[in-house]
Task: structure prediction
Amino acid sequence: MKNFIREISPYLLTKLMSEGGDYGEIFYEKHFSTFLNFEDNRIQKGSEGFDKGVGIRLIKNGKTYYGYTSDLSKNSLEEVVRSLVKIDGEGKTKVGLRYMTGYTKVILDPEDYFPERKKEILLKANDIVRSYDSRIKQAGITLKDSKREILIINTEGEIVEDTQIRVALYVEAIAEENGYMYRGYESAGGLSGYEFFERDDIDIIDYISSKAAHRAVLGLNAKHPPAGSMPVVISSEAGGTMIHEAVGHGLEADLAEKGLSVYAGKIGEKVASELITVIDDGTIPAKMGSYNFDDEGVPAQKTVLIENGYLKSFLYDRLTAMQTGKSSTGNGRRDTYRNIPIVRMRNTYIAPGKDNPHDFIKDIKKGLYVVKMGGGQVNTVNGDFMFEVIEGYMIEKGEITYPVKGASLLGNGPQAMRDVEAVGYDLGWAIGTCGKSGQAAPVGDGQPTIKIKSLVVGGTV
Result:
């Protein structure tokens, strides 16, 4: 079917541009995925998905016209084109001038990985969680994989193919004592086959399962932290939730160029401590947000957004690049062929610094040490945020003391970045699924350990 789409695309693009247009595109996608959920010592849910279709896009005078179909017959594809061609004018078409291809090189392809071996991963994670402590009462394990083939043919003369393979494991543990329950959670995954879970350097399954169980048990004896402004140290283990949410979204051009970001109009200005460099990179091997080409056929690249505190660039897709006279940074991503591509992050992180993270708490009389962050809310227009703290500890007189529960961090993204006093040489990563405009995208986010002069900690007064 992919060969048929490749063969018919020049004809479709010519028809698409026959009444005018600045850019036309055929996007073909074939997607295979499996999902397994393990609870109560057995597989509760299991599914295998397969989807295939084509999206057709026309950009004319800065406006986007889009249609899609899962019926890949010539008649159906022509009907989508006819529904879009309602504009007077004359468009230019180039087809097949440049061919590019990419493929995620894997050892253990999800399509060939036996179901019995997937079940072994679930059983192992379940056993590790349940054997961690007698107070662990429940374990929930979810295993996901996907194989996504895309073909993009456009009026710039480009023909681009990419295959993206991802795996992910999510572990939840529930501990109970004296009628009180607490949940612990951890996850891992990336642009990889199932060899991700069979590495020699680290037992990924044991690591994340033990982490989830540890957090559940730890929470049973945790205390509510005192509320108020105080220094905060965020561990590299926390991943880059803050940089992704509180900073990254505001650097997406579809928001920033419309004035819907606190960073709008500030290219070249100092927006953070000189210790802060923020990067979005789609080329890092095996990271969840990596790929060879984005969903518009633009090669993945490394984009420096903030360098030594100064705002250098936003993230662009083809449309925002056309609207602003810039070049796409390879951040045009879409959930499926049913969706138009929009600006999305890939692997966004704070670059490691030169400071020793073990020294960060020595001079703090009262503060919070954050090991793991959870969900939250961000206002991209003014940069204000609120995040949950999943695992954290009080810092008292230069030492880490008791674990906390029910804590949250409140602040402003740009101000928090200006208040960074130290950046560690360590760098940790987390995975996530980012939601925007009703679309989901797999991402990675990371940071080294950082010390922030002051944030508001939500707790008890």
Remarks:
- The radius of gyration is 24 Å.
- The longest helix spans residues 115-132.
- Confidence is low (pLDDT under 50) at residues 87-91.
